[in-house]
Design goal:
Elements lengths: L2 H12 L1 H18 L17 H25 L21 H23 L4 H24 L8 H20 L5 E7 L8 E3 L5 E3 H9 L3 H7 L4 E8 H4 L9 E10 L8 E4 L2 E4 L8 E10 L9 H10 L6 E7 L4 E7 L2
Antiparallel strand pairs: 1-4, 2-3, 4-5, 5-8, 6-7, 8-9, 9-10
Length: 341
């Protein structure tokens, strides 16, 4: 298998957690829609442990986890040689955007697990325990598979950020009984250039071709996999941290982290059809971005309709486009009238 193909597969696996999260949210939404015709109270958390809900949720979780784990192993890991359990130093790969992605996914998996547990009527303490263990098990399963594969390895950095994301959710819910700071994501489409790039043997390719191989062609693939188009945010609710009259309770201030010009894990060099291609670092410098922007906590917009509240909660994992100020590692300050990525 070529270096390009291997990189593509590894990139897919590294963002698998985000895809699994989105699929889980959609499945939960579809599952809950079945009860809408009966009574709206179906969407409200139970006051006490509801055994039919509990066993239904437990069966759904166990089945989804088992099917996803087996499918991932059969589809990807089984293609590669196995080895003794070993580690892999991937710090600074993708300018650590994948690490922040791990924290984002762990945080939101914990949120989904907690809300689902509370929906069954489980106590707050037990729901937090369920959410923390569930998120850790899901993330750790993939890390362990990495550890036994010769192509990759167990990443302590990944585990650290998995733990961080889970801890951010659990600690806030335990001590504040609310999420004052939410971990969110934003992403937008990038139109990559199609100009010819000349390889080491005189062949040609393009940056667009590289991106198609690395990040996929469809809009969904690009949303999930294109680190250049993603920003991970810590979105803090202003009113809950600094209560002041006149401040809307839904208004957030968000600090984002992103990176640009990433066309390889550690460097912008790759192999395509037996030829080596590379990008001029002066034309395509890899750099970090730190962004300050406004946001909204949609969970604080309450309606009398539990179904609408659920939709707002699902959407709340995504940072809303708004004006922003950026500082990057090139030493530049930039103002964005509408920052989307």
């Amino acid at each position: 298998m070529s270096v390009s193909s291997t990189a593509t597969i590894r990139e897919f696996i590294s963002i698998f957690r985000t895809k699994a999260l989105i699929i889980s949210l959609l499945l939960i939404l579809c599952f809950q829609l079945n009860g809408q015709v009966e009574k709206q109270a179906f969407f409200a958390p139970a006051d006490s442990l509801n055994k039919p809900r509990f066993y239904t949720a437990l069966a759904f979780t166990a089945t989804s986890y088992t099917a996803t784990s087996i499918g991932l192993y059969q589809t990807w890991y089984k293609q590669f040689d196995q080895s003794k359990f070993h580690g892999f130093d991937d710090w600074n790969e993708w300018q650590n955007m994948d690490k922040f992605g791990h924290a984002f996914t762990a945080y939101n998996l914990s949120n989904v697990g907690y809300q689902g547990a509370r929906w069954t009527g489980m106590s707050k303490k037990n729901a937090l325990l369920f959410a923390g263990i569930g998120s850790t098990v899901i993330q750790s399963t993939i890390e362990i598979m990495d550890g036994f594969s010769t192509k990759w390895g167990f990443s302590t950095g990944d585990v650290a950020f998995n733990t961080l994301g889970t801890a951010i959710f659990v600690a806030q819910e335990a001590f504040w009984d609310e999420q004052k700071i939410r971990i969110k994501i934003s992403s937008s489409s990038i139109d990559y250039p199609t100009e010819n790039l000349i390889g080491s043997l005189g062949g040609s390719s393009s940056l667009r071709s590289r991106v198609d191989q690395l990040y996929g062609k469809s809009g969904l693939e690009r949303f999930l996999k294109d680190y250049n188009a993603q920003t991970i945010w810590a979105s803090a609710n202003i009113y809950s941290l600094l209560p002041r009259a006149g401040i809307p309770k839904w208004l957030n201030l968000a600090l984002g982290y992103s990176g640009e010009n990433m066309f390889g894990g550690f460097e912008n060099v790759w192999v395509e059809n037996g030829e080596t291609f590379g990008l001029d670092p002066n034309t395509y410098p890899r750099y970090h971005q730190f962004i300050l922007s406004f946001d909204a906590d949609l969970n604080r917009i309450k309606t009398k309709n539990h179904f609408v509240n659920m939709l707002l909660a699902i959407t709340n994992g995504y940072k809303l486009p708004s004006p922003a100020i950026e500082y990057n590692s090139l030493g530049e300050w930039r103002f964005h009238l509408l920052f989307r990525t």
